[in-house]
Specification:
By secondary structure, this protein is α+β, with helices and mostly antiparallel strands. The chain has ten helices and 14 strands. The strands form three sheets. A five-stranded antiparallel beta sheet has the order 2-1-5-4-3, sandwiched between helices.
Amino acid sequence: MELILFVALALTAGLAICAYRQRRDLQEYRLAIKSRDEAIGELKAQVDTLEREKVESQLLASTASDVAFDIILLLDENLNVVMANRAAERLAGRSNPIGKRLTDLVDSSELYNLVQVALREEESIEEQFAIGATNYRARSLVIAPGQGDRYIGIGLQDITELVNLNRARRDLVANISHELRTPITRIRLIIEGLFLDADKPKRKASIQSLKEIAMETDALLWLAQELLDLSMIESGEAILRLVKTPLKQVVDDAIERLESQATMKDLNIVSHVPQKLDVLCDADQLKRVLGNLIHNAIKWSPQGEAITISASEQEDEITVSIFDNGPGVPEDLRHRVFERFYQADVSRSGDEGTGLGLAICKHIIEAHGGRIWAEGNSQSNGGHFLFTVLKADASFGEDALVAENSGAQAIVTESAAPL
């Protein structure tokens, strides 16, 4: 009996010890599992953070490349597109060029050669070439992140406007040289003719010669003024003070200034501007606009013809028209004649002018809050230029307004300055 009790006690003790060990091991397993779960949670949080940072980095890189004006492409060694911004998509003519071969997207042997040279030389290459009608400055860079793979980064900058501007500036220098050389040469010849020892000048001939000198001097002053005006406008230093001004007075002053030039060509300048019209303008600058347009009409008008200036009022605007009986502006060129340095027909004008006058007019009128354009002359085949200015009683909601437009500052005041 005692033996049975001893055996039972031993079994009970063994089971108890075994159960204790199992509970201890289970607790250790639970602690290990908890520790592992915590470690997995931490790793998962790190992975999520890295994934979020990766997405944010990709988004920032994508946004930075998409907002760039320049074209950005990333190619693999087989010239397949790996990454392209929106500017590159516009060049390729498709919304998703990823995976497409460069030669299938852009028809440009110069760009293909640039990439090939970059792969061969493994250095940054810069070139300038045209794709269609657009001029580009291109740069390529080979990238080798590791494991033998190489990628080619390409950046294309549209420099068409810069090329056109440089060409226009070269033409401007050539035109200015011509414009300066001609009157200076004429002035020198006239003066030499006046003071030849063997031929004493007569009074009548001297007066005519002096008139010609004055005319050539006016041409030089006009050229210098155009260059100064454009420089002031583009630098933002031109300040317009808009005040209530009688339009007829401004027109009459502009006509008087150019009356001698019109007389030289036997031209009659006729004004049909009503006395009652008051405009909100900077009188000096508006006279400059009228002067440029009248000067342009004098230059193109046949001898003995008339130049007509008229004005009509609308709701808050007054439209001023300048008619002449010259050749006029062809319809397909009317949107271009207001560009800087542009001349509609150099061959017919004898390469006269710098192409700045109408551009200056556009700057000044837009700074006044108006518009300027060219039309066909319904009365004949001549030229017809129109522009608008605000009526003096136009409503602004404020007594004073400061605005910036076309590189000039406009300040509206109520007091009129003397002309």
